[in-house]
Design brief:
Elements lengths: L13 H10 L5 E4 L7 H8 L8 E5 L6 H8 L3 E4 L4 H11 L2
Parallel strand pairs: 1-2, 2-3
């Protein structure tokens, strides 16, 4: 994403991501569904309640066929499966960023 000209903030786990989302304005949050401690779906449910929450896009390597529907139910705006190349990342940003 940085090579595409975007500023990137990384959080090592869900609680750190919530803190970042509460402290600054983001145009988009890419959320791994398999986070340590709290999973990405739980993070999405909490993040959607934050003031000025950005669009959230679920990212996962999991092959679970129900994952896109569960992500949408949790409040995610989009869904993508890993691996993602630069073109796929650029498309996600163009489609979902505010």
């Amino acid at each position: 994403l940085q090579s595409l000209g975007h500023r990137v903030t990384c959080a090592p786990q869900a609680l750190a991501a919530l803190a970042e989302l509460g402290a600054a304005r983001f145009d988009l949050a890419l959320v791994d569904l398999d986070l340590p401690g709290m999973d990405g779906l739980e993070l999405a449910q909490l993040a959607c309640g934050l003031p000025d929450a950005p669009p959230l896009v679920a990212i996962t390597a999991n092959a679970d066929p129900d994952a896109p529907a569960r992500a949408a139910t949790a409040g995610m705006s989009g869904f993508a499966r890993k691996p993602l190349n630069a073109a796929a990342l650029a498309e996600l940003v163009a489609r979902f960023a505010r």
